[in-house]
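User: My instructor asked us to take a sequence, write out its structure as tokens, and then describe one feature of it. I'm not sure where to start. Here is the sequence I was given:
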Amino acid sequence: MRIIAGQFKGRRFYPPANNWPTRPTTDIAKEGLFNILVNQFDFEHIKVLDLFGGTGSHSYEFISRGCTDVTYVDKFPGCVIFVKKTAEALQLKDQLRIFRADVFRFLPACTDQFDYIFAGPPYAMPTIDSLPDLIFQYQLLRPDGWFVLEHDPTHAFRTHPKFLQERHYGKTIFSFFENKSDLTA
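Assistant: Let's start with the prediction itself. The structure tokens for your sequence are:
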């Protein structure tokens, strides 16, 4: 795993691979995603939520690019310990809030709103299709905020009312959803 751009560009991390329930986003897919995001957001002024954060790859990438308010959520103790150690090594304690929690319990309890939310759940998770609805039900996105869900070809979200676009990187698909601001008000 490496950080693609910004202050920590090129920095590599080696999470323990034994018995981890993670599937880190490939560098090619992550680079493609961030090429889109850099044209949409000013990273220095946004608030980010990283769900099913795993190794913390997305969180580090945002912070490396200037984001100062990132929230990471994962329930696997090994991932949380790894992210805490990495955050300490990079001196990120002021930019990164780390929660060891089940995402489906975290979402209804969260009182914050975010400009960007990323979710990289296990592809075989039976409740993956409910994530877009939950994000909007709990009003976690600020107006014009984006939710990006990583999934595989067994899931499709093109008919969701908040769907914006999707991008394919091999078998990795990113579905984008937008909380459009009401321009008629």
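For the description part of your assignment, you could build on this observation: The helical segments are 27-37, 57-64, 77-89, 103-109, 131-137. Try explaining in your own words what that tells you about the chain.
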